[in-house]
From TrEMBL:
Residues 42-98 form the 4Fe-4S Mo/W bis-MGD-type domain. Pfam families: Molybdopterin (PF00384), Molydop_binding (PF01568). Keywords: 4Fe-4S, Iron, Iron-sulfur, Metal-binding. It comes from the Bacteria. Residues 1-23 are annotated as: Disordered. CDD domains: MopB_CT_Fdh-Nap-like, MopB_Nitrate-R-NapA-like. The keyword 4Fe-4S applies. This is Nitrate reductase. The lineage of its organism: Bacteria, Bacillati, Actinomycetota, Actinomycetes, Kitasatosporales.
Amino acid sequence: MVDEADRIKNPWGARTPYGPGAPWPTRTDAHLAPGVAEDEVERWVPSASLLHSNGDAMDIAVRQGRIVGVRGRATDRVNRGRLGPKDLYGWQANASPDRLTRPLVREGGRLVESDWDTAMGRIVVRSKDLLERHGPGSIGFYTTGQLFLEEYYTLAVLARAGIGTNHLDGNTRLCTATAAEALKQTFGCDGQPGSYEDIDHADVIALFGHNMAETQTVLWTRVLDRLAGAEPPRLVCVDPRHTPVARQAAVHLAPRAGTNLALLNALLHEIIRTDRIDRDYLDAHTVGFAELAAGVERCTPQWAARICDVPAASIERAAEIIGGAERLLSTVLQGVYQSHQATAAAVQVNNLHLVRGMLGRPGCGVLQMNGQPSAQNTRECGADGDLPGFRNWQNDQHVADLARVWNVTPERIPHYAPPTHAMQIFRYAEQGSIGMLWITGTNPAVSLPELSRIRSVLAKEELFVVAQDLFATETAQLADVVLPAATWGEKTGVLTNADRTVHLSEKAVEPPGEARPDLDIFLDYAARMDFRDKDGDPLIAWHDPESAFRAWQRCSAGRPCDYTGLSYDRLREGSGIQWPCTERAPDGTARLYTDGITWADPDTCESYGKDLVTGASAEEAEYRSLNPHGRAVVRAAEYLPPHEDTSPDFPLQLITGRTVHHFHTRTKTGRVPELNAAAPDVWAELSPNEAAHQGLSDGDLVQVGTPRGAVRARLRTTGIRDGIVFLPFHYGYWDTPAGHRPPDHSAGRAANEGTVTDWDPVSKQPLFKTAAARVTLVARRDTGARSTSATAGSRT
Ligand SMILES: Nc1nc2c(c(=O)[nH]1)N[C@H]1C(S)=C(S)[C@@H](COP(=O)(O)OP(=O)(O)OC[C@H]3O[C@@H](n4cnc5c(=O)[nH]c(N)nc54)[C@H](O)[C@@H]3O)O[C@H]1N2
Ligand SMILES: Nc1nc2c(c(=O)[nH]1)N[C@H]1C(S)=C(S)[C@@H](COP(=O)(O)OP(=O)(O)OC[C@H]3O[C@@H](n4cnc5c(=O)[nH]c(N)nc54)[C@H](O)[C@@H]3O)O[C@H]1N2
Ligand SMILES: [Mo]
């Protein structure tokens, strides 16, 4: 058993050092409720983590019908028994006394308890009315990266072929849209090339805008164990903050926010200038290198140093390390994805690997990371802005093939334009062309940018909002119907992590009250709507998780994310299998592109590519002439400054992000005593230098304002670079543990009060890490003013 205080303070636990190429040793982490001994556990139910994308396998301890703890699974390829703090303690949220147990409907302006028939009845009446009067485009769905594969697939079928709407996207738009887009741009198709095992082999690991130590704690444990062993890898860290990752790095580059592309172009410049390139690899597997070489020719370290405000010598040093690597592993996450040239920058990391021929062998991988536990499934099932099975909406053959799988006519599946992205869905809801928005497993009233706008959209009289959640979240408060969902541990389904590892998560206990699995809710809706295929049979013929999984397998057959070699039984026998898993690869596939590029062929690719500056989709003919033989595409892009840059009024850059103890809007982790106590309230980070410059000191209550809104927080001086203020985005106006909600919606605690409605033109991912801001003093540290509920209603 773990020492609890220790794992809150030391999220990574004790070292188990290992050398290059050796297997990562096991270490079993567990936590049981106080007073429960291991031999009192009646059943251990297999599952995997739902509080990040790492996919840590674990077993859920059950006693007398209740979850009483968790234990990491030592046999699993992903975590070899380890668990992070959110997983060790987070399960307690399931039994929170304020779980939703009955549907709610709005009556006379208030949400009141109701029953399933009434709630579903209202949704169906609204759906049919909208379909009749305004057609399928009047209905939108906004889902998540936190359900199970079977649920996304069912939702994708009912939305795309049942309703026939193009307006279905996930909060994955805020999360991994750029990961998917960067893979499509370079490799023609989504699908993570690398494997976590690359950490065991790499001699250089480069992390771009990825605070792995706090956001994928177990993966970071693997890195720490390599660092503690023989022949440790060297780390390159690009992050404006002195994160725990930066502390371990051979080179830490702390650029101004939103300048990743300039930095990456300079790294490419140096690598090309010093001829650290793999000509054979480039010739055999890529197109476009000449344009890249020309494009970065003037991007010297000195040029980038001025834009990024980092020493040119540090850029040269980083280029030397990356250029000298024999086995390079790179990871990319939100520090790159949530800025204005997100895809253009993420693609340059792919280019580093293509130029150096570092792909498809042990230690040579690029991880365009995911964040949410099942974001990969949202993408592959087409519950986001993609068609299921990574099919290409511009390729009529792909649409026809999907129509065959669903037994509908191709015209039934909208493909007149790219599937609508989330920011556009909210725009349509704002403008009124969407009259019903069904939100599942996400809390946009805290997580989308510019919250005053989002609140006013969700509160609109004419917009019928359905919220499906565990709790009466900030979003649910604004809904017309609230559906109580079962969650992890209370339902069965599959989830796939960031390195394509598929796990089965089984039902351990009953959900509270009348709460139902999301799958059952979608199936119920499809039955009530009576969706039919072209022969008049039910469009959705499955009835439980396993039959839904089999339906998905048929849809995935022959596509890159091929699940045909898997089954619930196989997943129960083993633990964690990487797709593609087929008859020919029954044990799954560790790495993609081991034998050249496989899915970029014009006939099979998921995307014909986009213009990296405007985001405009290329036509088939353009792609055919650019890349007739289906190679990787080396795409160049020029650095452009952020739209909202600093000014005398707003002299700082605002970046937002995460802390190790909380997950997103804290609906779970805020209800867990150990995690809540570890980080109960919002804070703002400035460098000591910057604080002094603004006349502020540690502990002062400050206001972080942008042109759109403000947050009040205690100031912490940290190792962040000058010119930047950081806010964790976890804190909504819901206050733990009492469930107290201030009467005023704007408590000034959510970082997104100040973020901007703007997105990367290519991936459409919103910018959570570039806005202009100012920090002003509210009260000095020792005046005793509180920063949360006490100040909640008082805005200035
Ligand atoms: N503890 C915890 N873990 C989580 C989550 C959580 O909420 N809490 N959420 C999960 C999810 S859904 C996601 S998407 C991932 C996100 O995981 P990460 O991307 O690692 O997390 P963030 O804190 O959003 O951002 C990472 C870093 O980007 C840096 N950054 C900001 N601006 C820039 C920039 O312009 N350039 C560069 N290079 N860096 C910049 C920030 O300083 C920050 O340290 O975490 C997953 N894991
Ligand atoms: N400023 C700023 N904003 C950000 C980010 C940032 O870095 N900075 N990061 C963005 C990113 S990467 C992400 S992923 C988003 C996350 O943003 P959200 O998705 O809004 O965050 P969560 O709090 O995870 O919301 C998930 C909801 O699903 C509910 N839920 C959990 N399990 C289930 C289930 O099984 N079924 C159903 N129906 N509901 C369930 C939870 O109670 C919770 O209310 O935030 C984005 N917003
Ligand atoms: Mo995310």
